[in-house]
Design brief:
The chain is an alpha/beta fold. About 45% of the residues lie in helices and about 10% in strands. The chain has 12 helices and 6 strands. The strands form 2 sheets. A 4-stranded parallel beta sheet has the order 1-6-5-2, sandwiched between helices. Strands 3-4 form a two-stranded antiparallel sheet. The chain is globular, with a radius of gyration of 23 Å.
C-alpha cells in the first residue's frame, strides 16, 4: 500500500522572519569581547560595587531583565513582607544550575536598596505594578552572605552601611558588619578575634534591632549555603551544629517584627 501527500499551491505564506532580521546582537558579542564579568551574575561583586557590568548598574540591569511571572511573584512576596503586609519572613529558592537564582537575588538588591533612584523603565514599572503598594517600594537595609566567597582560612571582604570594609571569617560576623558595621560586631562581642560560636536568638534580636535604627526594613540574602556547609563540616564536624544553631536563631528572629525578611537560596 502506498502513501502520497499533495500540497496545494494556495497555502498561506508564513510571515515569520529569521532571528537575525528582528534583533540586533550586542557590540561585545559581535567583537567577541564579551567577558565573564559582563554576563555571569555575582551577588558578592554587586554588593561590593567594585566591578562595572550589567549586573551592577540598575539602569542596564533592568533594561536587560525580563520580569517573568515567578520573578514578579518573588519580588511581590518579599516587598509585601518588608512593607509589613505579610507574615512570611523566609523565602527559599530552589533552582537548577543556571535557573536564575542569583539573578533573582540581584533583582531584590537593586529594587530594595535604593528604590527612589530606580530608573523609570518598563521592567521596573512592571515590578511596581505587580506589587501594588500605593506607598511605593519600601527601602531596606540589605545584607548578603555569598557563602562560596567565604573562604575557610581568609574569610571575605564585606561593606558596612557607611562604606567601610573589613575581611571577616565567621558568617555571623559577615552579616553583622553589613548590617551595622563596628556597632554590629560589638553586639556579637567581637573584640579582635571573632567569636566561633553562633549568636543566640536574643543576640540576633539586638543585632537586627540595631540595623533597623535608620531604615525600618531589613533584607538578608544567603547564596550557596550548602557549599560552605560541606567545606566547613569536612574541616571540623562541629560546624554542623554551629550552622544549624545560626540558621535557627536567624529564622526565629526573622519572624518578628514584621519588617524583617531573609531569603536563602540553594541549587
Amino acid at each position: 500500500m502506498g502513501h502520497s501527500t499533495a500540497f496545494g499551491d494556495n497555502m498561506a505564506r508564513t510571515t515569520t522572519h529569521a532571528w537575525h532580521q528582528v534583533m540586533a546582537l550586542r557590540a561585545e558579542i559581535l567583537s567577541a569581547e564579551l567577558s565573564q564579568k559582563q554576563f555571569a551574575a555575582d551577588l558578592h561583586d554587586v554588593m561590593l560595587g567594585d566591578n562595572l557590568g550589567i549586573y551592577h548598574d540598575p539602569q542596564e540591569f533592568f533594561a536587560l531583565t525580563y520580569p517573568t511571572a515567578r520573578l514578579r511573584d518573588l519580588v511581590r512576596d518579599v516587598l509585601w513582607r518588608l512593607a509589613g503586609k505579610s507574615e512570611k519572613a523566609v523565602r527559599q529558592l530552589y533552582l537548577t544550575f543556571g535557573g536564575g537564582k542569583t539573578h533573582s537575588l540581584v533583582t531584590l538588591v537593586h529594587l530594595m536598596r535604593d528604590p527612589e533612584s530606580l530608573p523609570d523603565i518598563p521592567s521596573v514599572q512592571q515590578f511596581r505594578s505587580h506589587c501594588g503598594l500605593p506607598e511605593g517600594l519600601p527601602r531596606a537595609r540589605v545584607a548578603a552572605v555569598v557563602f562560596d566567597h567565604l573562604d575557610a582560612e581568609q574569610g571575605m571582604e564585606v561593606c558596612a552601611p557607611d562604606g567601610s570594609r573589613r575581611r571577616l571569617l565567621m558568617p555571623w560576623s559577615v552579616l553583622a558588619w553589613q548590617l551595622a558595621g563596628d556597632a554590629g560586631l560589638k553586639v556579637l562581642k567581637v573584640d579582635g578575634a571573632e567569636r566561633v560560636s553562633p549568636p543566640a536568638t536574643n543576640v540576633m534580636t539586638q543585632l537586627l534591632e540595631l540595623a533597623r535604627t535608620e531604615i525600618p526594613a531589613v533584607l538578608i540574602l544567603f547564596d550557596e549555603v550548602l557549599w560552605f556547609a560541606r567545606t566547613m563540616v569536612d574541616k571540623a564536624p562541629a560546624w554542623t551544629g554551629r550552622l544549624k544553631d545560626f540558621l535557627h536563631s536567624l529564622t526565629a528572629r526573622a519572624g518578628y517584627p514584621r519588617s524583617g525578611a531573609w531569603a536563602p537560596s540553594q541549587i
